[in-house]
């Protein structure tokens, strides 16, 4: 249901659903993909209701059988018991089908066929009854059948009408033509008062029911769209909370979380954890010379180089703040981290971003501090940060554009 529903709403956007909902002349048909979803939704619900209604149908059937036996003159029942047992047979078939795939897949068609048979029985039954008083009762029983067909089986209006009028009209025509020749007794006034009257009334109620059910469906679709939208927003917010807006790298918050997590894991597994701290050399001068916008572009290029260096799934490239970048490398020893830092510095040099105001090169360069530790029981990630920071400070102090590893 969920995936079908999503597909439907891809094709039928929210505004269209709202328009359908607000339309004063509500039609019992949606645009194609939504209609299919509604039918699936409605039939699933109809089947559930049908299962629950079978017990009531049996009770109604027994009550009518009891009433008929109590009222009918003895020995005057004729073929009535045989035909009336036909209703019982239809209920039995419904009960046997209730868990079948046939009913799950073709609920409307199967139940419409059973309902049509019930309508046929309810119309033929009174023709075979000779006692006038009992015949009235049988006509009234037929009206009950009509009520059940329209309102008790969750048939959509077209199927309910097919079962009701599709069978009722031809039978009335046949009865009109053949009754005199076959000597059948048809009380047309009673047919009008029971079958026709009940059908017209039930059609109106059935239409209103289906309209209401469709409105509820549309409202549920809107709610589902809202839920999806909120989930997307929440996802976006969560992403924003962890990602640096300028560079797309992990932000400080994500870095802090990853550092805590990886520190704990490295401690448990007795593995090293390496940290690379990098700072752009003379970036203030770069900004002053080229402008802040160009400075942002430069940061984005450097971020791409950092991202490329975070090769394994557990590596994390982030922006620590300002013009400082970090690379967190779980399971990496100091020597390997230092050579990764050298690769990083070389890649930045190779990018050849002009920096006329730098004292250490003609292009943008990095000063990089590297530290690595195997976490101890009393140690903390702050110690690793402090060491990497110290190494970075030393790289700056030693003239920039270099890597120092501790
Ligand atoms: N364009 C741009 N500049 C930034 C951003 N964040 C920090 N900066 C700039 O980075 C510069 C950092 O200046 P300083 O801390 O003096 O460092 P520096 O000029 O790089 O000098 P050294 O680090 O000592 O080589 C400042 O001018 C900040 O405005 C940013 O997101 N975009």
From TrEMBL:
Provide GO CC annotations from the record: plasma membrane
- Report keywords, A-Z: Membrane, Transmembrane, Transmembrane helix
MF annotations from Gene Ontology: diguanylate cyclase activity
Query: What Pfam families does the record tag this protein with?
Result: GGDEF
EC number per UniProt: 2.7.7.65
The UniProt catalytic activity note for this protein reads:
2 GTP = 3',3'-c-di-GMP + 2 diphosphate
Q: Which SUPFAM superfamilies match?
A: Nucleotide cyclase (SSF55073)
Q: Name one GO biological process term.
A: cell adhesion involved in single-species biofilm formation
Name this polypeptide is given: diguanylate cyclase
According to its UniProt entry, this protein's organism is Isoalcanivorax pacificus W11-5
């Amino acid at each position: 249901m969920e995936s079908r529903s999503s597909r439907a709403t891809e094709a039928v956007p929210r505004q269209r659903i709202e328009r359908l909902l607000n339309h004063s002349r509500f039609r019992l048909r949606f645009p194609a993909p939504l209609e299919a979803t509604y039918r699936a939704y409605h039939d699933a619900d109809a089947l559930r209701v049908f299962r629950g209604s079978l017990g009531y149908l049996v009770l109604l059937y027994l009550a009518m059988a009891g009433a008929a036996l109590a009222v009918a003159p003895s020995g005057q029942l004729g073929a009535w018991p045989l035909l009336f047992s036909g209703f019982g047979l239809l209920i039995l078939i419904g009960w046997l089908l209730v868990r079948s795939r046939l009913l799950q897949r073709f609920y409307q068609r199967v139940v419409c066929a059973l309902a049509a048979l019930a309508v046929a029985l309810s119309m033929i039954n009174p023709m075979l009854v000779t006692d006038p008083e009992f015949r009235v009762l049988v006509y009234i029983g037929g009206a009950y059948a009509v009520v059940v067909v329209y309102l008790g089986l969750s048939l959509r209006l077209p199927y309910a009408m097919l079962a009701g009028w599709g069978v009722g009209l031809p039978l009335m025509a046949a009865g009109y033509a053949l009754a005199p020749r076959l000597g059948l007794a048809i009380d047309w006034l009673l047919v009008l008062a029971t079958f026709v009257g009940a059908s017209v009334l039930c059609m109106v109620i059935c239409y209103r029911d289906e309209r209401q059910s469709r409105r509820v469906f549309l409202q549920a679709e809107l709610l589902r769209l809202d839920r999806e939208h909120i989930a997307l927003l929440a996802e976006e917010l969560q992403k924003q909370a962890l990602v640096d807006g300028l560079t797309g790298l992990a932000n400080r918050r994500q870095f802090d979380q990853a550092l805590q997590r990886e520190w704990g894991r490295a401690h448990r597994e007795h593995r090293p954890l390496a940290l690379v701290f990098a700072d752009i050399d003379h970036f203030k001068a770069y900004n002053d010379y080229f402008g802040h916008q160009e400075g942002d572009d430069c940061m984005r290029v450097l971020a791409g180089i950092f991202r490329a260096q975070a090769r394994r799934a557990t590596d994390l490239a982030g922006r620590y703040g300002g013009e400082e970048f970090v690379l967190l490398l779980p399971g990496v020893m100091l020597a390997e981290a230092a050579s990764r830092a050298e690769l990083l510095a070389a890649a930045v040099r190779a990018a050849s971003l002009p920096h006329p105001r730098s004292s250490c090169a003609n292009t943008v360069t990095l000063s990089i501090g590297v530290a690595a530790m195997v976490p101890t029981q009393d140690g903390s990630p702050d110690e690793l940060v402090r060491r990497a920071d110290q190494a970075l400070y030393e790289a700056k102090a030693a003239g920039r554009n270099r890597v120092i590893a501790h």
